[in-house]
Amino acid sequence: MRLVPKLLLLALAGAAAGWWLTRPAPLPASAVAGLVGDAAHGEQVFWAAGCASCHMAPGAKGEAQLVLSGGQRFASPFGTFIAPNISQHPQAGIGTWSLLDLANALTRGVSPQGEHLYPVLPYAAYGKMQMQDVADLFAFLKTLPADPTPSAAHEIGFPFNIRASLGGWKLLFLSTDWALPGNLTPTADRGRYLVEAMAHCGECHTPRNALGGLETSRWLAGAPDPSDASGKARVPDITPARLTWTEDEIASYLTTGFTPDYDSVGGHMAHVVENFARLPAEDAAAVAAYLKAVPPSSGP
C-alpha cells in the first residue's frame, strides 16, 4: 500500500515540474528600462514587421491600413485564428499597454494578463528583435488611431484551445539562435535580421512538423499554403535551389512586385511588397544578399 502514496507524490512532483517549465516567462522590467522610442524609425519597424498586413481590417487600403482594428482570418491545421484589434483604443485595443507589455507579447508570446499567446503572432521570429526596435515600434503605434471594433474569438477547438499547452510548444520550438548561423557580410547580416526576425519570412516559407514547429533543417524550403482549402497550393522555396534570380532581381521584386519575367505578385505576398516599398532600398538589397547566402534546399 505504501507504493500508492509514493506514486502519487511522484505524479504531483512531475506535474509541478511540468508547470514550472512551461509557465509563461515574461521579460524582466529591466529589459526595457531606459529605452526611449523613436516614432520615425518605429514606422520603418512597423512596415518591416508586417503589422498592418495582419491587423488592418479585411480589404483595407491606403490610410485605412493604419487603423489596426483586426478581423482578418488565418486558417491553419489547428483552426482559424482571427487577428485582434491592436489599435490604441483603451478597451478594444492595446491603448493601455506599456512598452514592457508590447515587448512581452512580441518576444515572449505572453499577454499583459500573463497568458500564453498563440504563435500565429510570430513571436518565434520577433523574439530575435532588438529591444530598441520594439521601443521604436511602440512609439509609432502610439501615433495611430484608436478603433472600438471588438476583437473576435479564435475559432479553434479542443485541445488547441488550452493555452497552457503552449508552454510545452514554446519549450520545444522557441529559440533565439539564427537559422543561418555564423558571420555574414554587413549587408547579409542586415538581411538576416529582416528575414529571420522582423519580416518573419520563415513563418510562411519554411515547412512545419505535426505540432506546428518550424523544420529549421529545411529553412525557407517552401511549405503548403494554409489558406488553400484544396491543399495543393504551396508557398515557394526561396533558397538558391529554386530561387535562381540575381540579387538585383530579388530586390526589384520585393519593391515593385514584378518578377524578371514581368509576372506580378499576388496573394499575401502583395502585402510584403507594399511593406518593402516603404523601406529604404538597402533593406531589399540586404534580404537579397541573405537569400543568396542560405544553403540550397535538398527537397523536391
TrEMBL record:
InterPro entries: Cyt_c-like_dom, Cyt_c-like_dom_sf, Cytochrome_c-type_DH
Domain Cytochrome c: 37-145, 186-295
Record carries keyword Heme: yes
Molecular functions per Gene Ontology: electron transfer activity; heme binding; kinase activity; metal ion binding
UniProt cross-references to Gene3D superfamilies, sorted A to Z: Cytochrome c-like domain
Alphabetized UniProt keyword annotations: Heme, Iron, Kinase, Metal-binding, Transferase
Protein's UniProt keywords contain Transcription: no
Identification of the protein by name: Diacylglycerol kinase
Provenance organism: Fuscovulum blasticum DSM 2131
